[in-house]
Design a protein that fits this description.
It is a single chain. With 679 residues, the protein is of the alpha+beta class. It has three domains: 11-134, no CATH class; 141-378 and 585-670, Rossmann fold; 388-573, Jelly Rolls, CATH 2.60.120.1290. The chain is built from 13 helices and 33 strands. α8 (223-230) packs antiparallel against α9, α10 runs parallel beside α13 and α11 packs parallel to α12. It is globular and about 70 Å long.
Length: 679
């Protein structure tokens, strides 16, 4: 396939595939030409692209200055190179894109990561070989003994003395403190076969500071290089040889729980002195012993992130890490367990995103198992769901929130405007009488932005209103009018995106992003002004969302806020729903989804993400009848290696997941590489 590099500005609007004769038009330029005389906003009429996910469509239609005032719309955009990092599902070959200045990183099973100049995103997405495109999302670590409580000691401290030997356990996380003795054998040699630090910059001309083969980011270190660093007595010299550092300690704790072992502990686990929970005895005291779930497993560590940035990993780094782990496992001819202790809340939670489908495909390759934490959103008040036909409905009958009025403009409703019918008390449908629902949302002070996702079935038509803490009200555009809209209530600007059918989406999304306008007035009621720099925030107080039935088939609705790690602990729904609080990608069908329980009280941890309530959920096709989490492991007060050379108790599904990852490694050792599946 041959591709022609665009020449003039006009030529940049049209790409020709010389082999097949297809013509692709860059819609924005052509739409601007088409609508220049009509006064129509080309962004509203022409940019809509059903091969792009809704969040990416909204990001492309939103100016960079506005995107930077949000937590997620600008994720994946590089302001210096003016490029977007994108995830694509494709068929055939994408090699021809490189002639257009597009970087292509091939992953597994026809997934790829593209780095695309911002002006070419629409055109590139329109080529026949690309099936669907998503932007990266930011993922958050799920942090807030276990061996005996999980019944491992029966097979680790006596016959058959399982240790995970011969199994590759991949920890994709914040890195690892490779100097700790828990990750070395009795001779002081590392048990880490490979360490890929994605946050380090490769050094040109230095063959020892290069990314793994097939990747362009980060630096890969072998066991030989790690041992060379460990042999250095001088700490400064050690970190000059191998400068990878786990600054948060999250990855070190996860790796320790999964596969940590002090060298004094013998390989068959028969040495005495382990405490009742199978983890640490007298943690932090010299000479004490520590044993993870699979203490003899070989480790592969990927420190997720971007060069020069500290923070949470993105979808693209995760997909690169999974591909890398699979390639190394096949190269080493070892069974593989991948541990993922993070997630986020963006998506319909039905297994349909590209990351979820990617992990499903990855779990079918070779002898591999992927364990993912269910998240800590169970009690975070970040989710509410209901049914306008009655079940779980947050209806407004008798509500103190006040009544909404139809039509008109913000703060002056009551007329017969574009959305003009006054709210009716109810509507009769196949499921009975559908009634309006009101959802109240508390927004704490000092929130710079806040996103709200509303997911519903495409067959349902709702009229939706939004009211600010000060009482200003506005209707959202009719759901049939897809695309981006902008509203303003008080000193808060609301970006609204109405989704439409997409190849991998079984549900319709209505996305709201609350941000501070570019030029805000002086702080008023509900606005907080930071002491330094005069920064302003969205209106705090009680926001209300009203959902009215227009044409109701299922009556279902699901609302999600950002992860608890990305918002104030005082921001949340007044009447939250604990079910379907799994974080993505634990909603993937073929991964082992791990919840957490408190082994002291033998009770499910209140923070642990919960799954689907029944098989009748019609918001998505994959989730129908799916039982998640698959199992629960101890996740409260788990002792693990910390940043200070000792041990500390850790809480969260982040620390329940490596127990299951270690257990999977034991089963793989016992079965001599038998594939362990979650279903």
């Amino acid at each position: 396939m041959r591709w022609r590099v665009p020449g003039s500005q006009r030529e940049s609007a049209i790409f020709r595939n010389c082999a097949k004769g297809h013509i692709w038009e860059e819609k924005r330029i052509l739409c601007q030409e088409k609508t220049a005389d009509s006064g129509t906003d080309p962004d509203r009429e022409c940019v809509m692209n059903q091969k792009l996910e809704n969040l990416l469509n909204l990001a492309l239609e939103t100016p960079e200055a506005e995107r930077m005032r949000t937590d997620n719309l600008n994720v994946g955009f590089d302001g210096q190179s003016r490029t977007w990092e994108l995830i694509v599902k494709y068929h055939g070959s994408l090699d021809g894109l490189q002639a257009l200045g597009v970087s292509v990183e091939y992953l597994i099973n026809s997934y790829a990561i593209l780095t695309v100049p911002e002006g070419l995103v629409e055109a590139v997405s329109n080529i026949e070989e690309i099936e669907y495109v998503e932007k990266p999302k930011r993922y958050y670590y799920q942090d807030m003994g276990p061996a005996a409580d999980s019944c491992m000691t029966q097979v680790t401290l006596r016959d058959p003395f399982l240790t995970g030997e011969g199994v590759l356990l991949a920890v994709l996380d914040s890195g690892i403190d490779y100097t700790r003795p828990e990750f070395q054998d009795g001779a002081g040699r590392t048990r880490i076969l490979y360490l890929w630090d994605q946050t380090l910059r490769p050094e040109a001309g230095n063959g020892e500071r290069q990314p793994p083969v097939g990747f362009a980011q980060g630096v890969e270190f072998s066991a030989e290089q790690i041992n060379q660093a460990l042999a250095s007595i001088n700490v400064q010299e050690r970190y000059m040889l191998l400068p990878s550092v786990d600054t948060s300690g999250h990855g070190t704790a996860v790796a320790g729980i999964a596969a940590g072992c002090l060298p004094a502990y013998d390989s068959v686990g028969s040495r005495p002195g382990i405490s009742g929970n199978g983890m640490a005895e007298n943690p932090g005291i010299p000479g004490s012993q520590y044993r993870g779930a699979a203490p003899a497993a070989s480790l592969l560590v990927v420190k997720l992130g971007l060069p020069g940035e500290e923070g949470f990993p993105r979808t693209t780094e995760i997909m690169r890490g999974v591909t890398y782990a699979l390639q190394k496992a096949m190269e080493l001819e070892m069974p593989l367990v991948i541990n993922l202790s993070f997630g986020n809340t963006y998506g319909s939670h039905d297994g349909g995103s590209l990351l979820e489908r990617f992990l499903d495909n990855a779990a079918e390759i070779g002898r591999s198992v992927i364990c993912v934490g269910s998240g800590n959103e169970g009690n975070s008040a970040g989710h509410v769901a209901g049914n306008l036909f009655g079940e779980g409905n947050r209806a407004a009958s008798g509500s103190t929130a006040g009544a909404f009025r139809g039509g008109g403009t913000a703060g002056t409703f009551g007329g017969s405007g574009a959305f003009g019918a006054t709210a009716s008390p109810g509507m009769t449908g196949p499921g009975g009488t559908a009634r309006p629902a009101e959802i109240q949302l508390a927004v704490a002070e000092y929130e710079r932005s806040l996103s709200i996702q509303l997911w519903k079935n495409y067959s349902d038509v709702y009229r939706i209103y939004l009211r600010s803490p000060g009482g200003q009200e506005a209707p959202l555009p009719e759901p049939v009018e897809d695309g981006k809209y902008t509203l303003q209530l008080e000193q808060t600007q609301i970006l609204v995106y109405l989704g439409k059918p997409l190849p991998y989406a079984a549900a319709q999304e209505i996305y709201l992003e609350l941000i501070v306008p570019a030029a805000t007035a002086a702080p008023g009621p509900g606005m907080a002004d930071a002491a330094a720099g005069g920064r302003q925030y969205i209106n705090s107080g009680v926001w209300t969302i009203r959902i009215e039935p227009v044409q109701t088939v299922t009556g279902q609705y699901y609302l999600y806020l950002p992860s608890y790690a990305a918002r104030s602990s005082r921001t949340g729904f007044y009447q939250p729903t604990p079910q379907v609080t799994l974080t993505i990608p634990s909603t993937a069908a073929k991964v082992i989804t791990v919840g957490a329980y408190d082994s002291t009280y033998d009770s499910y941890a209140d923070f642990s993400g919960r799954g689907y309530v029944d098989a009748e959920r019609t918001i998505g096709v994959i989730s129908a009848g799916l039982v998640k989490p698959d199992l629960a492991a101890p996740g409260v007060g788990i002792l693990a290696p910390d940043l200070y050379g000792g041990y500390s108790p850790f809480t969260g599904t982040s620390f329940a997941t490596p127990i299951v990852s270690g257990a999977a490694a034991l089963l793989m050792e016992w079965g001599e590489g038998v594939i362990i599946r979650s279903r």
